[in-house]
Amino acid sequence: MKDSAQECWNELDLAYEYAVSPKGALNHAKHLLSLYPSSMHLWDLYADLEQALGKLDAARRVYQILFKNPTASPAQTQRLWYKWATLEWKEGAMDSAITILCQSVLGGDGQTLVRMLKAKQMLSSMYATHPTVWVMQTRALLTYLTSSDLTETLDVLSLQPHATEELHAARSRFLLDLARNRGAAPIPPAALRGLLEQSAKIYPDNPSILSAFAANESRETIRGRVHRLFETLLNETCCHQSLEFWSTAVMSATSVHEKREWLDRGVRDEMACRSLFLWQQYVQLELENGRVREAKSLLYRGVSECPWSKDLYLIAFHDLMRPNFETQELIRWIDVMVERGLRLRVEWAGIAEDHSVDQGAIQAWEDDTFDDAEWASNERQRLLPY
């Protein structure tokens, strides 16, 4: 459990660093590897970073080194074999991908018709007795690369009624890879729609599945199927209780009108109305479209539903919103923040009267959100066990 938590933190850590600076993330990954050189998961993430930066040969070397590690478990190496094969497939090296897939199942080296058939048979047998993500993905990719018939690949991807959410999400990601692979003939969205829609109806609050469906449909010239599916899910399932559903619906919207519709329905829902993300997105959308009066009204509604969210309060001090607040309004606004224990680490006296608010100071307040969480955690620890 401890190793799993550490892996999760490492993944989030590198994702954050990559968002700030891709090259900085690579250096940070090297630093983490110097601390945990035996972590297969870290090496896996490092290979992903090299691949994201276009350093494909470096990523290949990482995979080759890892496969020589005698302490690696089969579960760890299986995922790496598949990712290496996927790298070659996306680069158009079909023969290399097939060789890697066969090697992951049978060991040894080489690519012959006998080895391919034997690998397929072994994967089919493994999938029948113990279906895992690796077996499903490896079997599907090997079938796709060795068959000229897409229907055969889709048949391989059929899942049992009791299939886990993990399998459905992995299948959706694989189908999306098929749709996006530029090295092969384009696959019509209709060919993948059935399986993606099936998974979405079974797990309507899974963002990977919903995003894959939306991305596949975005290739279609006639839009509207994504909206209709989300409408169906909203009416026939309990997905309205999930923030993942609402956020995916908003981010998948293709027009301002559609995005506004989903945001409005989200903030009116009894479960989703307390979502900081939805209120922020709604206020920002109206500001970007010049609807400042509506944005201000939404901001008041947002702080009413999320009364302890500092991020919402600080929107009032941003350049687009600040001119629409009277001085007395901002004074009352700041008083409410203080009453609710939302700490300001700057001298706030006079800020309401200053019409040229320093945006750097606002950024400093927003950055203090992490300090507030740390302070609250320390305070709870201090008060234990009472």
Q: Can you offer a commentary on this structure?
A:
The protein is mostly helical and 386 residues long. Among the domains are: 1-72, Serine Threonine Protein Phosphatase 5, Tetratricopeptide repeat (Alpha Horseshoe); 294-386, no CATH class. Helices cover 70% and strands 0% of the residues. It has 20 helices and no strands. Helix 3 (40-52) runs antiparallel to helix 4 and helix 10 runs antiparallel to helix 11. InterPro entries: HAT, NRDE-2, TPR-like_helical_dom_sf. This is TPR-like protein. Belongs to the NRDE2 family. It is found in: Nucleus. Its main location: nucleus.
In short:
This protein has 20 helices and no strands. It is mainly α and 386 residues long. Among the domains are: 72 residues, Serine Threonine Protein Phosphatase 5, Tetratricopeptide repeat (Alpha Horseshoe), CATH 1.25.40; 93 residues, no CATH class.
The portion of residues forming beta strands comes to: under 5%
Morphology call: globular
Q: Give the N-to-C terminal Cα separation.
A: 28 Å
Instruction: Give a short account of the largest sheet.
Output: none
Mean pLDDT: 84
In terms of quaternary structure, the protein is single chain
Beta-strand segment tally? 0
Count of runs of 4 or more consecutive helical residues: 20
* Radius of gyration over all CA atoms, rounded: 25 Å
